[in-house]
Write a structure and sequence with these properties.
The chain is mainly α. It has three domains: 122 residues, 3-Layer(aba) Sandwich (Rossmann fold); 136 residues, Alpha Horseshoe (Serine Threonine Protein Phosphatase 5, Tetratricopeptide repeat), CATH 1.25.40; 170 residues, Orthogonal Bundle (DNA Cyclobutane Dipyrimidine Photolyase, subunit A, domain 3), CATH 1.10.579.10. Helices cover 48% and strands 5% of the residues. The chain contains 20 helices and seven strands. The strands form two sheets. It has a five-stranded parallel β-sheet with strand order 3-2-1-4-5, with helices on both faces. Strand 6 and strand 7 form a beta hairpin. The chain starts with 5 loop residues before the first strand and ends with a helix. The structure holds flavin-adenine dinucleotide and iron/sulfur cluster. The site of flavin-adenine dinucleotide (FAD) has 27 residues, from helix 10, helix 12, helix 14 and helix 16. Iron/sulfur cluster binds next to helix 13, helix 17 and helix 18.
């Protein structure tokens, strides 16, 4: 093989032609280096959809680079089991003078590359990930001296800094946040007929990947029959256009609503494309703002959508890098239960969980409220160790990359960080699910009951959670309303709830 002066490392979630690592690519002397390794799919037991998403997007990106006449050293699945082995072998053979990369999306991956470079004595240059609108240094400055890092203040700073939805230094519409307009459910009639989201049928490359994943990872959860994600930058742009035209206007009001067998509703399906860097968040923000300025979508919907990307997405990345590596170890509520097995099969008698879990395993997708207030809520109330919950979320979603998944799971959903991300635990009884969905209709449980044969497990575990953590929760002003209702329970009722919760834990721990 001809000599190479630099390896430009491109990881599976760095498929960005505008990446800082590619900006001074020297086609004569440099080579882009990419590897598919089984380790990435087994360190958490990844679902087939997630594996296929990453690999087909990587292979499509490789083709685009090669069409430019750029040299790409690319290891397909099965050649090297681990990233480290693949890199070490090529460093030994080709002896580049330098490794160049954009900062990885996972703390441990970044450290490992640094370790290998040091061990093989090759220079490593790590460049800023320009995909994001807030750098790590800017976030650290924002966090400096703050006891609490609430998203809302960060978001306002980001609006001011970027000028998104701003006019003469003020938020358009006179307020920063239209969240109070955004909490509707569908009512009895349901979501009605809507244009389904644009699908991207597997091309030859994706078909090859599907075959490979079904062979190599046959025992992993999930199925690939319905795989239709955008896997190139071009497709991601079409998906964005489809969302802006057909779903953005309703995004806000139905953001928190759920409905049986309706996975997409008014959501954008853009997270995987953005996280793999096929789609620039600036383009997404601009398209949404433009839709409002053109009168195609109301401000409440557009602001709600923009807040997710300019606010939450940038904020969770900031939190991740600010608090890693210790963050993943946190377990503020001392939760130690195992994750019930039905998370990997969807086989449960709870209708809400069955819908969210089977959909997750089928499509590699669940929308935010399904993740937070169904699968996440149950794990929280059940008392599952947040690390186990984190491993599940990292494994099953097509958009799962640690910088975004971990703070959302451990922090927002499980309150494992004791209040860094969320001002209080997101706990609710089955009545919340009843209000926001049609799941409870036809479920064998009743969300209004906390004890007895028809008691909804969410409701039983909700009261049990409050009882169990009462002393700690009392210190949190924002929990006072929820705790006030506890006072109404007499000793007998408390004991009955605690007994039923114990039995539930035993039953669901055994259930397959
Ligand atoms: C327990 C849990 C785990 C999660 N794991 C992930 C994950 O691994 N990867 C991931 O991208 N998102 C994750 N989220 C956030 C959110 O659920 C997904 O981004 C969203 O459901 C993706 O679907 P969508 O593209 O249709 O989003 P939409 O509802 O259309 O929202 C638009 C975009 O906003 C961004 N966004 C929305 N909410 C968040 C958030 N809380 N944090 C960061 N970005 C957000 C996403 O980029 C998303 O594409 C998680 C949330 C929870 C509660
Ligand atoms: S009754 Fe309880 S378990 Fe059944 S769908 Fe409603 S919330 Fe879920």
């Amino acid at each position: 093989m001809p000599r190479v002066s630099r390896f430009i490392l491109v990881l599976g979630d760095q498929l960005d032609l505008k990446s800082a690592a590619l900006e001074d690519f020297d086609a004569e002397h440099d080579a882009i280096w990419m590897a598919e390794v089984a380790e990435e799919s087994t360190k958490v037991w990844s679902a087939k959809t997630r594996i296929a998403m990453f690999i087909t997007a990587m292979r499509h990106f490789r083709e685009i680079l090669r069409e430019r006449g750029w040299r790409v050293i690319y290891h397909e699945m099965g050649i090297h089991p681990t990233f480290t082995e693949a890199l070490q072998a090529d460093l030994d053979e080709l002896k580049p003078q330098k490794l160049l990369m954009v900062q990885a999306g996972e703390w441990a991956v970044q450290r490992e590359i640094e370790r290998v470079a040091e061990e093989r004595q090759v220079a490593l240059e790590v460049r800023e990930d320009r995909h994001f609108l807030c750098t790590r240094a800017e976030f650290a400055k924002h966090a400096e001296g703050r006891k609490q890092m609430r998203m809302e203040f960060f978001y306002r700073e980001m609006r001011q800094r970027t000028g998104v939805l701003m006019e003469q230094g003020k938020p358009v519409g006179g307020q920063w946040n239209f969240d109070h307009d955004n909490r509707e459910s569908f009512g009895k009639q349901g979501p009605g007929l809507r244009m389904p989201p644009r699908q991207f049928k597997p091309d030859v490359i994706t078909q090859g990947v599907i075959e490979m994943v079904n062979g190599h990872f046959a025992k992993h959860p999930g199925v690939l029959e319905e795989f239709d994600w955008p896997v190139t930058a071009e497709e991601a742009r079409l998906a964005l256009r489809d969302f802006i035209e057909h779903r953005l206007a309703e995004f806000g009001c139905y953001q928190d609503a759920m409905w049986t067998n309706e996975p997409w509703l008014y959501h954008s399906r853009l997270s995987a494309a953005m996280n793999l860097k096929l789609l620039d968040p600036r383009e997404v923000l601009a398209a949404a703002e433009e839709a409002w300025r053109a009168g195609k979508a109301p401000l409440a919907a557009v602001e709600g959508f923009i807040r997710q990307i300019l606010g939450w997405r940038e904020y969770v990345r900031g939190i991740y890098w600010h608090l890693m590596p210790g963050y993943v170890e946190r377990n503020a509520m001392q939760a130690h239960e195992a994750l019930p097995d039905f998370y990997w099969t969807g086989e449960t008698d709870m209708r809400c969980l069955r819908d969210a879990l089977t959909q997750t395993l089928r499509l590699g997708y669940a929308h935010h409220i399904q993740r937070l207030m169904v699968t996440g809520l149950f794990a929280l109330l059940f008392g599952v160790d947040p690390r186990r919950v984190h491993e599940w979320y990292l494994a099953v979603y097509v958009d799962a990359v640690e910088w975004v998944e971990l703070p959302n799971t451990l922090g927002m959903s499980q309150y494992g960080d004791g209040g860094v991300m969320a001002s209080k635990p997101y706990v609710a009884s089955g009545k919340y699910i009843q209000r926001m969905s049609n799941y409870c209709t036809g479920c064998r449980f009743d969300p209004a009951q906390s004890t007895g044969p028809k008691a909804c497990p969410f409701t039983t575990l909700y009261w049990d959670y409050l009882l169990q953590h009462e002393p700690k929760l009392r210190q949190n002003q924002r929990m006072s309303m929820q705790l006030r209702n506890l006072v109404r329970l007499d000793e007998k009722q408390r004991a009955a709830i605690q007994m039923q919760a114990k039995q539930l834990r035993e039953a669901y721990s055994k259930a397959v």
